[in-house]
Amino acid sequence: MKFIILLGFVSLFADMTYESARSLAGPYLTILGATGMIVGMTAGAGELLGYGLRILSGRLSDKTRQYWMITIIGYAVNLLAVPLLALTHHWQSAVVLMMAERIGKAIRSPARDAMLSCAAGTVGRGWGFALHEAMDQIGAMTGPIIVMIVLAISGSYRYAFAILAIPAALAMAVLIMARITYPRPHELEVGHEEQKTTGKLPKVFWIYLAAVGLVAAGFADYPLVAFHIKSHGIFADKWIPLLYAFAMGVDALAALAFGKWYDKKGMLALAAAVAVSSVFAVFAFSLSPAMIIGGVALWGVGMGAQESIIRAAVADIVPRDRRGTGFGIFNAGYGIAWFVGSSIMGVLYDFSLATLIVFSILSQMASLPLLVFVRKKLNDENRR
Question: What CATH code would you report for 2-188+197-383?
């Protein structure tokens, strides 16, 4: 639990940094001259890089067993890119830094999650990953509030990005502390013999990946929602990051609730989260402030499930000595689906909001039969 909490503080400060940047990304690109298509494709491409490159980093972490080194390098790249956004003057350079931030996350995530899964295995994977996600989202909620205050006082996006150098430095400090305190985190998973594998991931893993890919494809990224708010003048600029902070608060609470439920009911918890959050686009892309707030809350529920239960399930499906690879491949597929879906929704936004909403709902709902099938398969295996 101590190791989970330490990594939780790393994520708290890291999310305070880069989630604040994401809350401003849509409006900032708009100010720099980007279109709705560019915002949508930037968000999607960022997720493609942020998840797709995890195939390489995941395989590398399993092959070299240098989980800590890969994690530290990834966090350094991930966090350095954010304050540098304060120096940009064109949307092209801002997009490059946004891509770099996602690449850093791609480098460190599989190795970190593999280490985290070992500790979480002793406290319940749903709860362990949910606790980490909740701390993560405390940072994601606090950061946008800070940049909202900076934006309200100064009116400058550049000052808002520059102030994020502080939590970035704190994240790196706690990460080094965790490395010194727990140099061999894989030893935390007690009571489990190292499993021998054939080199192949279980078949149910690929079915699960297809299901989650459908969820990702229909789940619009916040920058597109923020772009919608900015373009129609629904909220003043200073309230857009606060709205994101609200979503992150919902995310944290949803992660804890669904994480506990996952340890009791397994895949049923994820299916329920998808069913609840699948209609968020109906509200988030309306012109009513009240409906948008409701839509962002549903979006937060979906994010809470995706960032906690989804990772816990991967750790339960994939053998321990293949988890770096498993997390890497899984997240790559997830990112490709997110990129395709975000690009489609970015194009649809410029032509037909109604079609965007229908696409979002149908894509997410299509995952439910596959999730039910995966649940049945896992239950059958547990009975053997």
Answer: 1.20.1250.20
